[in-house]
Amino acid sequence: MTQLRTYGPAILALLAALVLIRIGVSWAAEVDAAGAGLASAIALLYPIGLTLVAWSALPPDQAARASTLALLAVALALLGYLALGFGLHFGGVAFISENEGLQELARFFSLARGDDSAAWGLLGLEGFFLSGDAATPAATQLFVSQLPLVTTAALIVMLALPRHTPPLAQALAGLIVSTFTYPLAGHWVSGGGWLAQLGHTLNLGHGLVDFAGAGTVFVVGGATALAAALVFGRPAPPEKEETVTMPPAYAPLLSGLGALLAVVGWIAVGLANPLYAEPGVNLDWSRTALNGLAGLAGGTLLAQLYSWFATGRFDPLMGPRGALVGLIAVSAGAPFLPTWTALAVGAIAGLCLPLATYLVQHLLRLGDATAVTTTYGLAGFWGLLAVAFFADGRWGQGWNGTSGLAGQGISGLLVAAGLQADGGQLGAQVWGSMALLVLGLLVPWGAFGLLSGLLRLRARLADRFS
């Protein structure tokens, strides 16, 4: 009876989520608006699952703080994205979409002029506050479909901030991500911006490919967390040499449940996006879901195999974290990879997880208890590069409006028999990954540095006049 009380709610929550995703897939195929709305609601399980895994690694005194930060992150994500973020992200989406309800979103700032302007979009200039003629049902649906990703970006950053980060800096971090860095990166990648158009401008494959937004969210989010650690300092080194152990799991049930909920939400993220339902976008959703699960399996197996090899037991936290890094790593190319390579991509991410955790926590001492930099940032970066190695060329024809090699789909270096490898895709993924990393690191680093200087100045003035 005690076990039933303990595990019953978790099991019921998981079963309910699985039923809802099954209904959402069916509705999405039959009733677009209702199906997409339900998928958007289920997609919120994605940030919820990630948050549960992060919470499980925090001691009780820090978990209470994390609970407050999580609710604050949700509020900041909604307000920031509504006020400025959505307009910066999709202000020029009319140039890549045939949806009549999105044609009012047709203003953007470009790095070029004339006929080439649409290929070098830097940021959108329409749709702020979802007001005016741009406030159509289609635009609202697109906005709602992005909320799980915006919330995820704000959550992972605010939960990863060093414990002694000033409260004002915590709020600033959430606003920077939801208002500026994530939407700006999103415009470059999925809003018709310059990274998506590298196939047109520089003949680099199909441009940067990031199907489920893993690079946009996790590379930018991980870099922002790194910037905060660099500005606000690292924990003091221990007085005596500490014993290296696996990170403790204070709530192992939460970590396992979080990983399961995250994969359900991840599947719904793609189904909720109306841009993926337009004519000409041919995606095999069954293949996509299977590859996501394969990546999760690969990450779980390798992370737990390492745990067993190092400690003689399966670790309750390393398993869920391995599942997440595998899922995140395969996200960018899930529709375009053979299933065996999706398993390999997740396995490589799972193997790198404990090594990166040791590097960040014990050598660099960044104080990343929630492992955002290692679990999410590194996995997102690897996932973007994996597209250039393993996309087999059979899916993704016309992605980003680019025909590719002789009408092939997105093609990496290891393609299906009879197809031609595309080295240009590697260039697009490398350049795109580096651009997202630089954006996520430098902008917050500058903002945090300015805020840190102002806080120090205030403290000095307070000391002088006290």
Q: Could you walk me through the main structural features you see in this protein, from its secondary elements to its overall organization?
A:
Helix content is 65%, strand content 2%. It is globular, with a radius of gyration of 22 Å. It has a single domain, classed as Ammonium transporter AmtB like domains (Ammonium transporter fold), CATH 1.10.3430. The chain has a two-stranded antiparallel ribbon. It has 14 helices and two strands. It is mainly α and 466 residues long. The chain starts with a helix and ends with a helix. The N terminus is likely disordered.
Per-chain topology:
Layout: H1 2-30, H2 32-43, H3 45-55, H4 60-90, E1 108-110, E2 121-124, H5 137-160, H6 167-190, H7 198-201, H8 214-232, H9 252-272, H10 285-311, H11 318-331, H12 339-363, H13 372-390, H14 423-465
Antiparallel strand pairs: 1-2
Helix pairs in contact: 1-2, 1-9, 2-5, 2-9, 3-5, 3-9, 4-5, 4-6, 5-6, 5-8, 6-8, 6-14, 8-13, 8-14, 9-10, 9-11, 10-11, 10-12, 11-12, 11-13, 12-13, 13-14
Using brief descriptors, characterize the structure shown.
globular; 466 residues; mainly alpha
The CATH superfamily is known as Ammonium transporter AmtB like domains
CATH class: Mainly Alpha
The average pLDDT value, as a whole number, equals 85
Number of domains: 1
Helix content: 55-70%
State the CATH architecture. Answer: Orthogonal Bundle
Helix vs. strand class? mainly alpha
Poorly predicted runs: 1-13, 23-31
Largest sheet: 2 strands, antiparallel
Overall morphology: globular
**Strand-residue proportion:** under 5%
Please write the string of helix (H) and strand (E) elements: HHHHEEHHHHHHHHHH
How many strands appear in the DSSP assignment?
A: 2
CATH topology: Ammonium transporter fold
* Tally of separate helices: 14
Strand order of the largest sheet: 1-2
The end-to-end span amounts to 61 Å
- Rg, Å, rounded: 22 Å
